[in-house]
Amino acid sequence: MRFTIYCWLVMMVMLSTPAVLALHDEDKGPEKFGRYEFKEQDIKEATDACDAGGKPGPEFVPTVRDKEPNLALLKDAKAEASSQLEGWCPRRHCIEYLNDGFYNNCRSWIIGAIPGWAQIDIGEVANVNRILFGSDHSQGFFDRTTADFDILVATTKADANSDAKTWTKVYTHKEDAISKTTEFTFKDVEARWLRLHIRTNGGARVDEIEIYGGTDPMAVEPDAKLTTTWAQVKSDNL
């Protein structure tokens, strides 16, 4: 009887383990995509520096998703934020980890004061119509989620005040807390800066911001691109 139970348990582990591993087995994306050149993704360096706390370490963020370049990972794209959790960076939770090309907790940013914001400076104006972000891609941690936030864009100035006229609000979220990597789509809009303005949820964590806007978003031709449904949200089960 015991032997039968043992065999059954071993079989269940063998059947379940590959599915779990495959769920987050992202490959390194291309370093260039047409005119777009991306940041270097040195996973050995990231892993060696990672303080994972027994949870999954760094995993690749795609440089190209659905044949569209990830604008947040462009070589000159820069992450900025109103604050960060003190006492952890560079081991984890740094502002620059918002677009360093790696998912998961030890390569994440955690906000300091609420309300506050995190943003990406793409470097030049581009067409944008969707972003992805989550709290912890691997789901090793389920705390520090974000449920009350806006997505803002600007073309001429990234004012520190999210209510400034230079910002245009393209999406508002006041629903479920965002834990896993989730996609948010909106109408085509021109942007150089894209900001997450977080109103509540103390200790909100973002492990990576991804930005997309078509196969050639820096052509800035919204009418020639596929326009997605306003305020459509779907989970990305990577």
Question: Mind sketching the topology for me?
Answer:
Blueprint: H1 2-23, E1 32-33, E2 36-37, H2 43-49, E3 59-60, E4 64-65, E5 68-69, E6 78-81, E7 102-103, E8 109-110, E9 116-134, E10 149-154, E11 168-173, E12 182-198, E13 205-206, E14 208-212, E15 233-235
Antiparallel strand pairs: 1-2, 3-7, 4-5, 6-9, 8-13, 9-12, 9-14, 10-11, 10-12, 12-15
Mind explaining what this structure looks like?
The protein is mainly beta. It has one domain (29-235): Galactose-binding domain-like (Jelly Rolls), CATH 2.60.120.260. Helix content is 12%, strand content 32%. The chain has 2 helices and 15 strands. It has helices at 2-23, 43-49; strands spanning 32-33, 36-37, 59-60, 64-65, 68-69, 78-81, 102-103, 109-110, 116-134, 149-154, 168-173, 182-198, 205-206, 208-212, 233-235. The strands form 5 sheets. Strands 6, 9, 10, 11, 12, 14 and 15 form a 7-stranded antiparallel sheet that branches. It has a two-stranded antiparallel ribbon with strand order 1-2. It is globular and about 45 Å long.
Give a short synopsis of this structure.
The protein is mainly beta and 238 residues long. The protein has helices at residues 2-23, 43-49; strands spanning 32-33, 36-37, 59-60, 64-65, 68-69, 78-81, 102-103, 109-110, 116-134, 149-154, 168-173, 182-198, 205-206, 208-212, 233-235.
